[in-house]
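Next comes the chain:
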Amino acid sequence: MGLDKESFKRMFPNLVKEMSSNKDKLPVNSVRTDNDAAESRVSEGRFVNYVPDVIDFLRRCDTLGQTEEIVAYMEKRGEIDKRYARSLRKQLKEKGVRSFGSKKEQDYYLRHGDH
């Protein structure tokens, strides 16, 4: 189904209005395949009130077994949905553990946070 912009605006005026406003936008900070981009996301003081996501936990893993355990656990708890879990497993299988970024060592947040 191909729609031009004007047809889309006429059919979905409220959606267009919502999409073009800056209100209620949420950052997407999930799958990161570029290590440099993932690291540049972190800045001084960034960890204040920071809640790690599944990618943060996967970056602490050393083996595929560990990553599968994390994905299964978060999927079981409902912290990630089945579709996202499948995409994580696929990325792990095709690109490996480090495809989510460099390994986060112990005390990562203390060493890289705002002191």
About this structure: The first helix runs from residue 5 to 11. The two ends are 53 Å apart (CA to CA). The chain has a mean pLDDT of 77.
